[in-house]
Amino acid sequence: MSKITVMVVDDHPLLREGLIKILSLDDSIEVVGEAGDGETSITMAEALRPQVILMDINLPGMNGIVACQKLKQELPETQIIILTVCEEERQVLEVVRAGANGYLLKDVEPEMLIQSIKDAVMGRAPLDPKIAGTVLNQFSRMSKMLEGEKNPVLTEREKEIMVLMAKGTTNRQIAESLFISEKTVKNHVTNIFRKLEVGGRTEAVVEAMKRQII
Question: How far apart are CA 177 and CA 118, in angstroms?
Fold first, then answer.
């Protein structure tokens, strides 16, 4: 079985060394890199592509929250576990928004740290019990916000028609292009106008661009 590859990011060399020694006790984990600042962590992660990154928040230059956000954009498949001393709600919420997969405090027991890495690879979200309530409440609020943003949303077919409308094609041309009836196109266009709350094609195109639908 292949080992779980891990990278450790912390600005304290002694702490990095301690973490690496702890992780080396488990035969299923391999530390492939370490970094002391956010910018270096991004460069190294892009080269090494570790499965898991343990990252502190307080890093020189680019902090761990910004680094996490950039890493999740570049390497969405990499699991990032924040490992920090901070229990402050504001920073916990910033970490959640940055896309971190887990949040642990540095007083975590070695066994729990190792298990958390394994959990992260399995798609679970390791959370320190001390901050779990804060994180879960934030996920709930974010979920409700996203539901609000999704309503109204265009279907895939409506998006196709919207793109063709933006090119100035007529209903008949759209029908021929998508191999559907002109009546069906008209129904879709009516639904698009209703969802975008507009009264015409030009207004619909402008509104769709504003909402980044097309």
Answer: 49
Q: Which range scores top for mean pLDDT: 55-64, 129-138, 163-172?
A: 55-64
State whether the Cα torsion 164-169-175-176 is positive or negative.
negative
Cβ atoms of residues 95 and 72 within 8 Å: no
Q: Domain 4-148 sits in which CATH superfamily?
A: Response regulator (3.40.50.2300)
In Å, how far are 108, 142, 189 from 115, measured between CA atoms? 11, 27, 52
Q: How far is CA 199 from the centre of its chain?
A: 36
Task: Name the fold adopted by 156-210.
Answer: Arc Repressor Mutant, subunit A (1.10.10)
User: What is the residue extent of each domain of the chain?
Assistant: 4-148, 156-210
pTM over 0.85: no
Two tokens, residue 15: 């702490």
pLDDT one-digit tens code per residue, 143-181: 455 455 555 578 999 999 999 988 888 899 999 999 999
What are the φ and ψ backbone dihedral angles of 43, each rounded to 5 degrees? -60, -45
